[in-house]
Amino acid sequence: MASKLHLSASRGRSPVSIFIVIGLCCFFYLLGVWQRSGFGKGDGYAIEMNKHQTNCNVFPSLNFESHHNFVAPLESSEPKAKIFKPCDVKYTDYTPCQEQDRAMSFPRENMIYRERHCPPEDEKLRCLIPAPKGYTSPFPWPKSRDYVYYANVPFKSLTVEKANQNWVQYQGNVFKFPGGGTMFPHGADAYIDELASVIPIADGSIRTALDTGCGVGSWGAYLLKRNVVTMSFAPRDNHEAQVQFALERGVPAYIGVLGSIHLPYPSRAFDMAQCSRCLIPWTANDGMYLMEVDRVLRPGGYWILSGPPINWKTYYRTWNRTKVDLKAEQTKIEDLAESLCWEKKYEKGDIAIWRKKENDKSCKRKSANFCQSSDADDVWYKKMDSCITPFPKVKSETQVAGGELKKFPTRLFDVPPRVANGEVPGVTSESYEEDNKLWKKHVNAYKRINRLLGTTRYRNIMDMNAGLGGFAAALDSSKLWVMNVVPNTAENTLGVIYERGLIGMYHDWCEGFSTYPRTYDLIHANKAFDLYQDKCEFEDILLEMDRILRPEGSVIFRDGVEVLNKVMKIARGMRWETKMMDHEDGPLVPEKILVAVKQYWVGAANGTSSAE
Q1: C-alpha to C-alpha distance for 535 and 490, rounded to whole angstroms
Q2: Distance CA 17, CA 20 (A)
Q3: Which residues does 541 contact at the CB level (< 8 Å), separation at least 6?
Q4: Is the pLDDT confidence value at 309 over 60?
Q5: Radius of gyration of the chain (CA)
Q6: SS3 string of 458-506?
Q7: Which secondary structure element, helix H or strand E, spans residue 560, and what is its range?
Q8: Where do the TM regions start and end (predicted)?
Q9: Displacement of CA 252 from its chain's centroid (Å)
Q10: How high is the mean pLDDT of the chain?
Q11: What span, in angstroms and rounded, lies between the C-alpha atoms of 272 and 296?
Q12: pLDDT at position 38, please?
């Protein structure tokens, strides 16, 4: 009887049980799909678990292949990846927009011939710039500040021309940089100590500096240990390879000149600027060059002049100029400084220091020719005028024009005045802080891919499309510096980057960058190629990246999968090793990461190349 009841009961429950089991299976399947789609709270747990996975190097043994890799069709009429040949060895130090032969065809007036003059389309080199024979990875920082391999920059002229000024010395297979300069032959440290007796360099008030006519970059090199980052520039002229030396030392620098067009920086960018015997004619063109320094100098910032005409009573014979001439020049500089609302704070020996007032409420200038442009940051390829950039308006004499900045490092993540004042379209204080969180997350992901990021392995770093500077801020370390490039076609955020205490410049990636070959260890390209899809050829941008990237240097691309597939196909013909990876949030995110490493090779006299 019992068995009959049990059998009957089993038969009665069986269909219900089956439906319940099927229903539960469907429910949990749909729940799992919902969570994996990114809309469920469970996704946060999955992402958190991913964060704790084992770190891997650039080319890990684990399978990090993207789910959206480029796969060539079996039957395709599309040609295979183009193989780029090495350029002739005569182009080892090629700088496309500052080539000497092209420069000499332009007027010398106002240094126009030393400005950027890029080749037309039919004259562009579409080959790979070779490294010189014997090229060696630079010394790690801080040793690189004092030593550079001769094979990397094989030019000895400065060791002779500047021998008594301690710029650079040749010793065996290396150059040694004693830290001297024309106006500080006994070393930059003592010179900076004298400046620091007037300028608050030590307390974080001074973070960004500009060196106009930098030589081999020793002023900027020695300011770094005081947590001041300097943008140094000099022309490509008879002082052979001076900017190349600076970059090889691990010091921020680029090829540039005060000529007829604006400097590629926003207004109110620098806390301090100097001319150390830079030989810029400050009184020429009605003071146009000094007015340009004023444009980029922050209210409350300092300008240092060491060299002619300062201390002319001592040096007039050495300079082969008359007392009358030099006295008149200094008087004119003093008058110009007053018209700019600068106050002289110091003059002793070879050094004079002025401070720009924090606002124009207490200016004593009688009259001024103010610039009519409504945007003092719109400067890419724009001609300079002999006019004064007005101070931003203030309501009281105690207010800092443009906004007061916190001391560094607090100012790195503090909301910049341009953001707080609503001067950047679409950027609020809240979105700025969210951007910082996002870039901390991105950089952590990069460090899991490449454990050497953040070490001395990558000293000179470039961000091709810097946005608000979040990448550089998340990486901030004394072991590295970042050149934050804001493309001229992107939203103008460079002023925000400088307010954070970072450096950078404007650029158009359809043209060559103002630097020598092999000057960056790592390049970051976040949506840079998406920005230029309809503006110029990817091939030209990638060849320029290859030119400025050091052998065995790395590139990190972050972009849509379609764009990265195009980039990867070109890169495979450039002697780059590449690897596509998923977004840190998983394979369902269409944005991907492409990592590339440039192979080591050097040029050969017969136009071939060698991996040595």
Answers
A1: 12
A2: 5
A3: 509, 510, 528, 529, 532
A4: yes
A5: 29
A6: CCEEEECCCCCCHHHHHHCCCCCEEEEEEECCCCCCHHHHHHCCCEEEE
A7: strand 549-560
A8: 12-34
A9: 8
A10: 88
A11: 10
A12: 39
